[in-house]
Write a structure and sequence with these properties.
Blueprint: H1 2-12, H2 23-37, E1 47-60, E2 65-77, E3 86-100, E4 120-131, H3 133-138, E5 142-153, E6 161-174, E7 177-190, E8 192-194, E9 197-210, E10 215-228, E11 233-243, E12 251-262
Parallel strand pairs: 1-12
Antiparallel strand pairs: 1-2, 2-3, 3-4, 4-5, 5-6, 6-7, 7-9, 8-9, 9-10, 10-11, 11-12
C-alpha cells in the first residue's frame, strides 16, 4: 500500500489519506487496495506503474436519457533502464448517450447518482484514441471505437451492498484493422453518507475477450470510491491491477483519478 500512496504523491502531489476521518470507510478502501498493491514492484519491461487521469461530464436529457462526454489519458513511469520519469503515453476522447430501459427508478438518492437510480440502462458511444509523445514516433496508434453497454443492478441487499453487472461490446478499428472486444464486469458497491455528502466505495473485476486472438486475454481488478464534492462535482480515486500476457507490459499497477461534472 505504501507504493500506491507513493504513486499518488508522485503523480498528483495529493495525500490519499488526508481528510478521510471515517475509520470504517478507510478500512474498506485500504484493505482492498493492499490486496491489489502488496505485490507491486518497480517498473520493468513486464510491469508498469501508471496514472490514469480522467475528466467526465454528464448532461441530463430528461428522466430517461443523459449525455456523457469524457477524456482520459495514461501516464507511465519509465522502466529502471530508462530515465525513471513519468511520460504521457496515450489519450482518448469520447461521447456517449445513456438511456434508461426500465421505468423503475429509485428517487431516494441525490441527482448525481443517475446510474444508481436505475436498475437497467444502456450506453451507446464513440471514442477516439491515439498514442502521444515518444510512442507516437516509435509505435503510432490510432483507434476508432464504437461502444455498446448494458448495465443492471440489484436493489440493496444484506448490509446495503449492491451488485452491478455490465456487458460491453467494443467495435474497434485500430490502425485500420477491425476487431471486436467483449467485456464482462461485476461490481460490488455501497452507498454511504459522510459529513452530509455521498460516498460510494466499490470493488470490481472485469474480463476481456478479444476476437484478434479468439480468447479471454485480459483481467482487470479495481477498488476505489466516489466522493461528492458539491451538488455538481464528484471525484473518484481508485487503484487498479491489470494482467494481459499478450500485451507489453503484461501487468499494470495503476492509480486512476476521475473528476466528474453533473449538469
Amino acid at each position: 500500500m505504501a507504493e500506491g500512496g507513493a504513486l499518488l504523491r508522485r503523480y498528483t502531489g495529493l495525500n490519499p489519506y488526508r481528510g478521510f476521518e471515517s475509520l470504517s470507510l478507510r478500512q474498506i478502501l485500504l484493505g482492498a487496495a493492499a490486496a491489489l498493491f502488496l505485490a507491486a514492484s518497480p517498473a520493468t519491461a513486464d510491469t508498469s506503474n501508471q496514472f490514469w487521469p480522467e475528466l467526465d461530464a454528464y448532461f441530463g436529457l430528461g428522466e430517461r436519457m443523459r449525455l456523457y462526454l469524457m477524456t482520459t489519458a495514461s501516464r507511465a513511469e519509465q522502466t529502471a533502464s530508462q530515465s525513471g520519469e513519468a511520460s504521457v503515453q496515450d489519450m482518448q476522447l469520447g461521447a456517449h448517450l445513456d438511456v434508461t430501459l426500465t421505468p423503475a427508478f429509485r428517487r431516494t438518492l441525490v441527482e448525481g447518482d443517475w446510474q444508481r437510480n436505475r436498475y437497467l440502462w444502456m450506453r451507446i458511444g464513440y471514442r477516439y484514441g491515439r498514442s502521444l509523445g515518444d510512442l507516437e514516433a516509435a509505435d503510432p496508434y490510432r483507434e476508432h471505437r464504437g461502444i455498446f453497454e448494458l448495465t443492471g443492478r440489484t436493489p440493496p441487499l444484506a448490509g446495503g451492498l449492491e451488485y452491478v453487472s455490465r456487458i460491453r461490446w467494443d467495435s474497434r478499428d485500430v490502425n485500420d484493422v477491425h476487431s471486436n472486444r467483449y467485456r464482462l464486469r461485476l461490481q460490488v458497491e455501497k452507498s454511504l453518507s459522510y459529513d452530509g455528502r455521498a460516498v460510494v466505495p466499490f470493488v470490481n473485476a472485469e474480463a476481456f475477450y478479444d476476437t484478434r486472438y479468439d480468447a479471454w486475454i485480459r483481467e482487470r481488478y479495481q477498488v476505489g470510491a466516489e466522493f461528492q464534492l458539491s451538488p455538481r462535482w464528484r471525484i473518484e480515486p481508485s487503484l487498479a491491477y491489470q494482467s494481459d500476457e499478450r500485451a507489453t507490459p503484461a501487468r499494470i499497477h495503476a492509480l486512476a483519478l476521475a473528476l466528474k461534472y453533473f449538469h
